[in-house]
Amino acid sequence: MIYSDGNIFLLQTANVSYMFRKLDSGHLEHLHFGGSLFSRDKYEKIRDEIDLETQDKELIDNIVKAIAPKHSFGGGNMNYYSDEHPQVFLEQLGLEMSSFGKGDIRDPMVELTYADGSNTVDFLFYDYEIRKGKELLKTLPSSYDDTDSAQQLIVKLSHKAYGTRLDLIYSVFPDCDVITRSAVIYNDSDADVRVERLLSTSVDFYETGLKFTSFHGRWAYEMSRSEMICKAGKATCEELAAGESGSRSNPFVIVSEADAAENTGECFGFNLIYSGNHYEALSSTGSFNSRFVSGIQPTGFSWVLGKGECLEAPEAVMAFSEDGFNGMSRNMHEFVRKHVVRGTWRDKARPILINSWEANYFNFTQGSLLKLAKEAKDCGIELFVMDDGWFGVRNDDHRSLGDWYENKKKLPGGLKELADKIDSLGMMFGVWVEPEMVNEDSDLYRAHPDWAVQIPGQPHSKGRFQMNLDLTRTEVQDYIIDSMKRVFSAGKISYVKWDMNRIFSDRYSASLAPDRQGEFQHRYYLGLYRVMKELTESFPDILFEGCSAGGNRFDLGILSYFPQIWGSDDTDAFCRLDIQRGYSYGYPASTVGAHVSACPNHQTLNNVSLETRFEIAAAGCFGYELNLCDMNDGDKKIIADQVEFYKKWREVFQFGDYYRLPDDGYMIVSRDRKRAVAFAVERCAKPNNDYRCIKAKGLDDGKVYNVANRVVPLSVLDFGSLVNTMAPVHVKQDGIIHHIIDKFTNFNGEKQVDVATGAALSKRGLTLNSSFAGTGYNGDVRIMRTGDTRLYLFEEA
Predict the structure, then answer these.
(1) Its pTM surpasses 0.70
(2) 499 catalytic, yes or no?
(3) Is 742 designated active site?
(4) By the 8 A CB rule, do 229 and 210 touch?
(5) In whole angstroms, what is the distance from residue 743 CA to residue 749 CA?
(6) Residue 516 DSSP label
(7) Cis-peptide into 600, omega within 30 deg
């Protein structure tokens, strides 16, 4: 998969080529990242390590000569690199590594300040290494390979005048057409070097007018898709100062052809295995090329590199497809599932849970929790999660964060007794924690006020009445590790929801010297990753779910330790439809927590049917977040039916290949293409819509499929006063007789059954049953009101 003769470097998968070359000056010129430049048999030669014949090497040389830009002279006011290489104008070259000082004036990958004050950086090639397998980064989470199929290329550069070195690390994952990049900088000199910027990847494109797609939002409305065409200037996605990957700007972005769509066009997906402030930018001078860079946010970052020290950049993930956004997404999903998520739960179906938060908030006792758990068990739910409010004197969000001992007024027998009682019901038990935080009104803060992130002697800005603990300090990391080990060992705990409910402010650590405060945020995450690594390794069977006021820290860094993340604190079904669709571009469904909650919804006061809430939440790690004790028997029966249905289709929902369909729909297909689920939603109902069609994706053309919709419950009340067109006497809408009729009338929505080939279902599509129009009704008529959804099930005949 990796070929090099020391001058040409080729990284190859079945469908992707990444190529660059060494110039006589020692610079690395980027040539191509995109569709394969070679036939499948040539790729297989490289993959199977068959020696390339002379004519194969000549072919590669000829391809490089053919595709490389031809430059004879630079522009009138460009600087040439040196007297020895007057033909090298860095500003006009595609570069694998970019910096300031020698003619390249575009967005740099590396910025350094040397001891003499110089910030000219001049890294040149001196060696390379190809190795089998995938080595992990030493200080940061990174992707892994347990299939023995990955390979790595390490290209070594040096700036001899100042005794610094830079390794560019490329990893090739042939099973998902993904290449990753990272960088490590070394200081071999006797003087300190200040790193002002060390990004993870830099890719130059030989065209402008590319589309930059990024995902933005706020608390409770994450992952809103945004598109910009970058003909000139810069399109940026960044988390500038919040201190986390952020709901405001997720680190996953897409660069594509301007007219790329879901199923057509070249698409490059980029993500970062990191949880702190990040920076992604696509820029162009408006001439003939564009540059994409990503990595740690340079603003507010600096790092003093002492003699003999090194600094790693986070790993950047690059997925490519010629089949549009859907093709890129499937490659990225496969990579995340198999090479980022790890441990016991990587490939294991996630249990259906009920979380106590929106049912009880802080107001609960052991008795009320057990009552809720029993109702959940009767509905077939598998996991009971106790959320915030169980520790210290935590009766509101003003106090007790950091005091990780049970509130015996609420839990007289502690975690163990409650866990045992939940276990005796035949359910798993889970608990909520927020270990990175402290309230001023807490025993921990009174004992260790210096452990909180704050500037000594200065007022501090707070969020949700809490402060960040200083995880740059080893003693704070140790306290969290020890506290959480006691909690997780207190009873039979199968699940942990790990929350983080504020961003950073007044970033400062008393343990860092004044000239090293720019290291604070990165050191915080080095500390957090140490904590997460030790706890997940100590409790390998616990299912950890990340959370940060919802999806404020939804990233591959967290997914390297926790196999799933709570998608958003917003549980409104239609908000979640948009949020989860946004996540689907870069993250597989098995990583996204999604729950059914009560109506009116607690964030929006919107009302939608229980069925719609279920069908939207089903495309993720599924659960409920409502008070079953307050629900009527009819609704509890509906929930029991939903749970039974989800268990039958869980593997497809969580681990199938995901395709986005038009009109906010989706289709998820099992890996063997024997089963599939398609989702349709009615945003704005119109009468006489008899032509609605679902054009299937991902099915096997040669297979024959039985197709049926999920039959939804209906009520006489849904028809309002139309009941009078059938009733022998006048029925007052919502009156006593209306409700009596409803009580004794049991009927459901339409039932559609079809049989067709995969080819017919994808080329022409499944035409849905005729829609309700007010002119007549029978059991075949499809009733999809504004806000209704429908699932269609495909099974090999």
Answers:
(1) yes
(2) yes
(3) no
(4) yes
(5) 17
(6) G
(7) yes
